Amino acid sequence: MGSSSDEAPLKAIIIGAGLGGCAAALALKAQHFDVTVYERLKTFRRLGDSLGLGENALKLLRRWGGQQLYDDLCAIGNQAPDMQIREWGSGRVLAQQPLMDMAGYIGHRGDYHEVFLKATRDAGVPILMDHEVVAFDESKPSITLSDGLEIEADVVIGADGIKSRARELVLGFKDHPRSSGYSCFRAYFPGSIVKGDPKCAELVEKDSVNIWIGDDTHVIQNTLRNGEEFNWILTRKLSHEKDMEITESWFQEGDLDEVFRCIEGLDERIVAAIKRTPSCLDWKICYRDPLPTWVSRSHMIVLLGDSCHAHLPTSAQGASQATESAAVLAICLKLAGRANVPLATRTYEKLRFARTRQSQTNGEDLRDRWHNALKNVKAGREIDPETIKMRNRPLYAFDAEADAMQRWHAVSSQVAEELREGQITPLFGAGSRSATEGVASGVGAASA
Ligand SMILES: Cc1cc2nc3c(=O)[nH]c(=O)nc-3n(C[C@H](O)[C@H](O)[C@H](O)COP(=O)(O)OP(=O)(O)OC[C@H]3O[C@@H](n4cnc5c(N)ncnc54)[C@H](O)[C@@H]3O)c2cc1C
């Protein structure tokens, strides 16, 4: 291990300054560790569109960054009190529920990211831009940058996103995405474009969130900045082999003619808005199987966020779960002590796995309930609103730090025994043990 004494603060390297990396920096800094973030990009742009940040994450961020950080993050979010779940063709409201049941606050990813970056820098954590990590030595542990410089630490945290290089090291092989059988077209543009059309102007009069559900398809529409910006996401089941070919990218341009074909018969208000769309992205929703481990064989390189538990958009929890993971990893490192990083990282993955699987599978369950609901109407049955509502609310009451402290003793004792025996049980699949009990079986960790 790269430590010299147990008294100096633990030295942590975080790879990636996305929302997950920043959350990890804040959580570790709150434990007074020596933290540096390495980011390969020269600058960040305002990329992506809407992202949910739930109270489960916000309460942690307030603890680390104070009330101002909490207020700044909440102010970014859509302020509509409720969202409407509507019938595809008529637009009739089938269910209405408080927005806080959905994603908590829905805001622009880039706006949240900017606030996360500022909070990280304000906390005194250096974010070294244009520093790409190209190699690892897991035994030291160390990272090597593209200019050849090698840097050692006590622990290396791979918050390097869906195409993570750290994951390859941890798994020992390249983990390929596979098609989920679903795809999204998504667009984000000024609300003024929609305001100009009386057919759809009502959607941007004030902040709104609407969802239209159809057979094997749904559209989510929301405004941001009180109607100044407009976002829609069309999810559909893919029917052709060719469509399922995977390009995992946030930048692939979509074909609007194809979009128009997919929205035939949809409520004319949202059709009018979509028809005014200047351009859209084509975003294949990929699956990645749950990983058997989030930690390298040396136990000192550990994954966090999309690198190990990416989510479907219908989970609305990708950033929030990354924040929870940050909280738990920091607590484990604190409780284990600098001289015992392996105990910390192995306890962290066991504490986190079942929770992230629950939140991932919530997204799959919701998509399936939406995509099948209208089949009941066709069969002459009314839809029970409860069957199409989002069920994320129970996720929000959770306090990841309190839970980690409460379960630390039991789980770390099991881990200590496994480390002594030199036999770490996998998180998933044959040989997995108690920490993963209650987790939905089958494959399908979603990657968003
Ligand atoms: C461009 C983009 C757009 C997105 N848009 C949405 C959206 O609209 N809605 C939504 O719900 N989610 C979106 N997401 C996903 C969402 O941001 C994540 O689920 C969540 O924030 C947790 O991400 P993360 O920090 O684990 O990974 P990421 O946000 O992917 O961050 C990983 C970071 O690591 C850096 N990195 C990667 N490799 C290296 C390396 N070798 N060396 C140094 N740095 C490295 C990357 O440049 C990146 O900044 C988007 C992600 C991206 C990347």
Automatic annotation (TrEMBL):
Q: Which domain of life is it from?
A: Eukaryota
Task: Using the record's annotation, list all stretches that form the FAD-binding domain.
Answer: 11-355
User: What's one Pfam family here?
Assistant: FAD_binding_3
Please tell me whether the keyword Transmembrane is annotated for this protein. no
UniProt KW keywords: FAD, Flavoprotein, Monooxygenase, Oxidoreductase
Molecular function terms from GO: FAD binding; monooxygenase activity
Q: Which Gene3D superfamilies match?
A: FAD/NAD(P)-binding domain
Q: Which InterPro entries match?
A: FAD-bd, FAD-dep_Monooxygenase_BioMet, FAD/NAD-bd_sf
Q: What is stated as this protein's family in its record? A: Belongs to the paxM FAD-dependent monooxygenase family.
What is this protein called in UniProt?
FAD-binding domain-containing protein
